[in-house]
Amino acid sequence: MWIVPVLLSFLALARGSPRQTDLRSTPLSPPCCPKKVVGDDVYLFKDLSEETADYGCVDACVYTLYGTDRRFCFAPGLPAAKCVEGPEFKDQLFTLDAQSKSVTLVNLDSGDVCENLPAYPGGAGPAFVTYFNGSVLACGDAIYEDSNKCYTFDGVQWSEQFESLWRHCVDSSTLVVKEGLWIFDMTKTGPGSCDPSNYASEIWTGEKFIPGPTLPSGVRAGDACVAELDASQSMLIGGNPNSSDVYIYNWDSQTWRQTTSLQQGRDRLGCISLGDKGVLAIGGNEDLSVELFDPFNETWSYQPSLPSDVYYGYSIILKHNTGHIIGLFQDTQNTYYRTKDGDWNVIENVYNGGDGRTLVPGNFVPACLPA
After folding, report:
1. Closest C-alpha among 152, 191, 154 to residue 169
2. Domain containing 345: what range?
3. Closest listed residue to residue 220, CA positions, set 234, 239, 201, 193
4. What is the mean pLDDT of residues 22-41?
5. DSSP secondary structure string, 199-253?
6. Do residues 166 and 24 share a domain?
7. How many domains does the structure of the chain reveal?
8. Which of 28, 49, 83 is the last residue in one of the domains?
9. Shared domain check, 55 and 105
């Protein structure tokens, strides 16, 4: 197919305001080329947007012209665009050390570390650090007075300080949903105090915070984990103290229902969606076991356990854009991936650390792109 780049911002000016875009940090579907070359111009994949359909483009993939912030999609026409694969455009590991304020980008293929990124402007202990809608969002602080302070990083610079609706405790659970980024955990109620019976639920739209779903009456969900079940449903799994309860929230009907319980109670667990293969519940409650939820039969089954040398709780489980599940565990700087058989293997020479870690697109930080 012959394709030609279409400048979205210019077309938006010519046609008026396009409909609201729907940008997601989930694995690409359909797959987007990490880099396209047209003549001497290089276009780098940036994100996904429904906006491209307004301009007759061939898919939902949005690119930026290298060295600029101009956004393009590709429509039928001339000349031909060549797709160039490159490991530098696989997701990379973004790490933030709140004590030293240092920020790095780690290549998961080579272990190479890109340093000297702009220093983190926040406090010493963000509740969460995650990538969403083209930016890294970092919120919270160990200090109560600053526990609702937030910043975003766009790959070049940090934003000015702004505030979330709630004061979140450390290791809040986040999930990309239809409305934005759902943030969920216990509320910080005072200096050094978090209340498992008092939860914080809000959504970051990319521009502002709005209230998130209200839990069913009587549910205590501190140290629970949230994961995607499908495009319109999310799962709330486990929670403090040692709960085996599992609930499903439907974003279309805005209703909760209880589903099959875990085979054992878990709090401080990790979780991740495997698409139509189900949802993993990982570790928690001084246990290294792993369970898989079957979305068709709504049953749980045990999977290979975590390695014996990792800490059972507060793990960060991420999905790489190659499809691999990445595990970041406390008490070790090793980075793990989950094999097709369900075992957890170390990624050689790739080390992680700091207070906040998330995956970002390989072209997210221009200063870290190869020359």
Report:
1. 191
2. 89-368
3. 239
4. 57
5. EEEEEE-SS-EEE-PPPPTT---TT-EEEEEETTEEEEE--TTT---EEEEETTT
6. no
7. 2
8. 83
9. no
Task: Give the span between the Cα atoms of 198 and 172, in whole angstroms.
Answer: 13
Of 83, 115, 135, the last residue of a domain is 83
Residues 284 and 326 in one domain: yes
Strand order in 225-230's β-sheet? 225-230, 233-237, 246-250, 255-259
pLDDT of 100 higher than 70: yes
- What pLDDT digit, counting tens, does each position of 140-165 carry? 888 888 899 999 999 999 999 999 99
Same structural domain, 166 and 254: yes
Cis peptide, bond prior to residue 87, ω within 30 of zero: no
Q: What is the pLDDT of residues 263-281, one digit of tens each?
A: 999 999 999 999 989 999 9
Q: Which two tokens stand for residue 185?
A: 């955990």
DSSP-assigned letters across all residues of 259-272: EPPPSS--SS-EEE
Residue 88: φ, ψ to 5°:
-70, -10
Give the angle 232-131-11 at the CA atoms, nearest 5°. Answer: 80
Q: Are residues 141 and 77 in the same domain?
A: no
Q: Check whether residue 245 and residue 339 sit in a common domain.
A: yes
Q: 215 with 202: CB under 8 angstroms?
A: no
Arithmetic mean of pLDDT, 109-117: 89
Question: Are the C-beta atoms of residues 337 and 319 closer than 8 Å to each other?
Answer: no
